[in-house]
Amino acid sequence: MTMSPVGGFGIYVHWPFCLAKCPYCDFNSHVRHQPVSQETYAKALATELARYAQMVPDRTVDSIFFGGGTPSLMEPKTVETVLNEIARLWHVPDTAEISMEANPTSVEATRFAGYRSAGVNRLSVGIQALDDKELKILGRQHSVSEAIQAVEIARKTFPRISFDLIYARPNQTLKAWEQELNRAIDLAADHLSMYQLTIESGTMFQRLYAAGKLEMLDPDLAADMFDLTQQVTAASGLPAYEVSNHAAPDAQCQHNLIYWRYGDYVGVGPGAHGRLTLEDGSRLATSTEKHPETWLGLVESQGHGSISEDGLGREEQSDEMLLMGMRLHEGIEVPRYEQLSGRQFNPQRLLHLQENGMVEWVGNSRVRATQAGFPLLDAVIAELASD
């Protein structure tokens, strides 16, 4: 077996179904009032995996990630079928991280042992808030007590767990967020993901906001919450290793690091994306049909649900590497960026960013955003990408 490409090699499996659509969510998720045939979808995922294995054979898999939607609506047997197929097609070492997103409703928490038996070794629980009233506003289907119970079950079942929270919610105060954050840290094992609430196109929140029925938090207060989050988590031994992700030493999500370090990943299932370096050194951006039943029909008729496979030029690759890598606390490897792009950073622009405290060098070969630069990351990246 060949080794992983630079940045690693991962498999992303998208399960598109949810019990309900959250009003803030713009992910490819769908509610079905009749049960779907899990056996049929498992077979289709296996078919699509086999097709990608022909494109990128002989790889060592660093991580597998079941995302959604709500992957914890999958039956453990479905997860096992998919994992067995991945192991048949590529080399999956014992050290591979196998993550699954889960919701903390009681119906899903009872499945945790089955997922662990199937091979999942890291669970990411979508809690979003530790306040029952706020959970209702966010359209979540669980209560705080269910969330805490799910985390406790997960901690006993999986070697590693994580959970998500959303902050800068309407009318949230800095003191309330600090209390919630400290409570979360007391609950957390070794990883927390904290996302600032944003208005995404096509969501219920976007429609309410446009109609004047939803008031977003003052941007300055939201920025204060970001700063507070960095301080509190760092003091508690969970420093940020990416803009929104915090972990104890050696507990970073290996799959997400593949994205941010601009590695290779296969994406299967409705609406999944991938980045693949082929045998000839060319790099492809892949994406699949979003609508679940349409995707299923495509897989059954043509062996895959792909709707685009576009070659990426040097500039596109280097722009993507910059966009992803600068989100990381470790920053980017400048020699790799220069090799990909065929150019060096503009020295005047780089110096300007340094003098303004937005970026800094780490040793002789890495550049990263500073704590002051992170809230202005889009502008920092645009400046670095300019000639």
Strand order of the largest sheet: 9-10-8-7-6-5-4-1-11
CA radius of gyration is 21 Å
Give the fraction of residues assigned to helices.
40-55%
Instruction: Give the overall shape, derived from the CA principal axes.
Output: globular
The DSSP helix count reads: 15
Strand content: 15-25%
What is the SS-derived class? alpha/beta
What is the average of the pLDDT values? 92
Q: Spans with pLDDT under 50 lasting ≥5 residues?
A: none
- Strand tally is 17
Largest sheet: 9 strands, mixed
For the record, give the distance between the C-alpha atoms at the N and C termini, rounded to a whole number: 40 Å
Walk me through the structure.
This protein has 387 residues and is an alpha/beta fold. The chain is 41% helix and 21% strand. It has helices at 38-55, 76-89, 106-109, 112-118, 132-137, 144-157, 174-187, 204-210, 219-235, 254-260, 292-302, 314-325, 334-341, 347-355, 377-385; strands at 9-15, 17-18, 30-31, 63-68, 97-102, 122-128, 160-167, 191-196, 240-242, 245-247, 264-268, 273-277, 283-288, 306-311, 332-333, 359-362, 366-369. The protein has a nine-stranded mixed sheet, sandwiched between helices. A three-stranded antiparallel sheet has the order 12-13-14. Strands 15-17-16 form a three-stranded antiparallel sheet. Strand 9 (240-242) and strand 10 form a beta hairpin. Helix 2 runs parallel beside helix 4 (112-118), helix 7 packs parallel to helix 9 (219-235) and helix 12 packs antiparallel against helix 13 (334-341). The chain is globular and about 60 Å long. The model has no long low-confidence stretch (mean pLDDT 92).
